[in-house]
Amino acid sequence: MAAAVTDPELPTVTLADLGILRDVRTEADGTVVVEITPTYTGCPAMGVMRADLVHALHAAGFPDVDVRTVLSPAWSTDWITEEGRRKLAAGGIAPPGDAPVRSPGPVPLRLDPPARTVSCPLCGSADTEELSQFGATACKALRRCRSCREPFEHLKEI
User: Fold this and answer.
1) For residue 55, what pLDDT is reported?
2) What are the two backbone dihedrals, phi and then psi, of residue 61, each rounded to the nearest 5 degrees?
3) In sequence order, which ranges of 68-135 are alpha helices (DSSP H)?
4) What one-character DSSP code corresponds to residue 39?
5) Predicted TM-score (pTM) above 0.85
């Protein structure tokens, strides 16, 4: 039930596909506890995710549902399942590559934009360009394929 709830901003994939759904368990008193991690702190879709999870579990016959937000460890695009990556591409969104590896401690300041090779989810060409670092949501960038000329979104690596 909880694993079938879709992401409100990416309705082609489930919260489980994205790795947002961390745990579902039943406590001794019968309460279903669901743990979710946002893609980034302050994600505006968290309220909708909570409500959708509660609604799905109530509809499945579970009267007591407690949805908890877990911030540590922080969500990473590496948590997206292979099925989730396939669904993103089928929905016209380029899935992320591997998340950047960072050493512990302060995040280094980079003034140059990261070099990315993002393949077009429509034709497969690697000849794409970034039009904007931000798409419809903060976690996506807007790109265009130079081969088929179609614009597409890319889920950024985090």
Assistant:
1) 98
2) 100, 15
3) 82-90
4) S
5) no
